[in-house]
Amino acid sequence: MTGHLAVVGLGPGDRRQLTPEADEALARAEALYGYGPYLDRVPARPGQHRHASDNREERSRAAAALDQAASGARVAVVSGGDPGVFAMAAAMCGEIESGPDSWRAVDLAIIPGITAMLAVAARIGAPLGHDFCALSLSDNLKPWPLVERRLDAAAAGGFVIALYNPVSHARPWQFGRAIERLRRQLPQSTPVVFGRAVGRPDERVSVTTLGAADATPVDMATLVIVGSRETRIIARPGRAPLVYTPRAVAEVSA
Ligand code: SAH
Q1: pLDDT tens digits for 71-86?
Q2: How far, in Å, from the CA of 39 to the mean position of ligand 1?
Q3: Distance, CA 222 to ligand 1 centroid (Å)?
Q4: Which residues contact 56 (CB under 8 A, 6 or more apart)?
Q5: In terms of Cα–Cα distance, which of 133, 145, 197, 216 is closest to 174?
């Protein structure tokens, strides 16, 4: 007997940014698995069981959800934002790859969500309007020297860079080091956007420059977008500035 497993993206926080497809998958599930604060965003439905776990328990959560789906249940695993961006969908695939054959027989659906960098970008203009990349600054799952190499390559390649996981309690220095690294290659005037808890009541979005970026507080709920040499800030009277990266690049800059 094979059940069904949906890995569902909840979007950044505002319920209006949850897709109808995700809403439907949540409503149809008999059991929900996920990090506690994400599960709290899903309205309670009668008869539906919830299995909240800690953020660091991705593997055991994936295994428990796969076991239950393999035994015939309809299960949903939730992720903030998009489940494929530094989140549960890849963890789930990793477990399926190394787990028992019964897990490969499970009917798996990955339901996309609005990822944090898109929600932050939309609040401030169009910083991702030209070529960009996304990097997680967490060195829990990769060595820090690899993070530095990728930051260097992204800056040298002229990409706008979205930085996920800038800091955590266990990783207090990584963001400062990343900014220091980027300053070696990019002008101090490069626009930097900070989006905190976008779509939630405590949302805060601000703009500064690379030269001043380490003066802005960041936490685990913050996504940082570092512009490229083309990214511009447009001041507006009585309104927040617009940050955008033009659609066209005329020539290769130094
Ligand atoms: N799957 C998620 C990302 C998980 S990694 C997604 O697609 O958005 C967790 C990181 O995402 C956080 O450290 C932060 O950098 C970013 N993030 C998640 N939700 C956010 C929000 N509402 N506002 C700003 N950044 C957010």
Answers
A1: 999 999 999 999 999 9
A2: 15
A3: 7
A4: none
A5: 145
